[in-house]
Amino acid sequence: MFTGIIEALGTVVAVASEGTNRHFTIQSPFAAELKIDQSVAHDGVCLTVVALNAASGTHVVTAIDETLKKTNLGQWQPGRRLNLERCLAAGGRFDGHIVQGHVDATAECLQVQDQNGSWLFRFRHAAGPQRLTVEKGSITVNGVSLTCFDSTPTGFSVAIIPYTYEHTGFHQLQAGDLVNLEFDIVGKYVARLLASQGLIASTEISS
User: What does the angle CA 86 – CA 25 – CA 12 come to, to the nearest 5 degrees?
Assistant: First the structure.
């Protein structure tokens, strides 16, 4: 489990294909602390460390075809900066919200607006079951736990403070870019329960 509080920025240094799989070599400040089989969220995607090189400060993760299709990983190239978070340690401080590292959908960044002290980002995603946000509710964008507003069935906005802008990948995000979304797990379970009991239609879950 993750919390959406980014520990560090990593950099993609190499990409290699093997069949339908793709291997990413990531350089990060805490590579020497990682272990094989450890789970790390990369831009919100939970991936398993399959190789380490302490000397170069890198680790390798593998994405299968299903992951490449459902996330923005297919667009990762050398030089890309990634939001990294290791799993929450037992007894650790819970500063964000419950994040599983399981991407529900991608969204397009529609607008980046400099508000002279903060930045406003607007995103659009396809409507669908359990793809829901609520005003002042939690959303995970590229692994970052954020509060959304201007919520609609197909979009939302977030406001980014200077610290988050500088210490996550938001400083490189531009209009037209795709991001990974994970919707609030509590909201998804509530919506599924209500639909299973016939209290709401499944088509209503996205609104």
Answer: 85
pTM of structure:
0.89
- Give the phi and the psi of residue 75 in degrees, each rounded to 5: -100, -5
Tokens (6 digits) for 107: 């969204």
Q: Alpha carbon of 205 to those of 33, 191, 193: distances in Å?
A: 41, 6, 10
- Which amino acid is residue 12, in one-letter code? V
**Which of 149, 11, 169 shows the shortest CA–CA distance to 78?**
11
Per-residue pLDDT band for 188 (boundaries 50, 70, 90) equals confident
The three-state secondary structure class of 128 is coil
102 closest CA partner among 50, 42, 27, 147: 42
Contact between residue 194 and residue 129 where contact means Cβ atoms under 8 Å apart: no
| Bridge partners for 106 per DSSP | 180
Report the pLDDT averaged over residues 6-15: 98
What's the confidence (pLDDT) of residue 199?
Answer: 60
Q: Is residue 206 pLDDT above 70, yes or no?
A: no
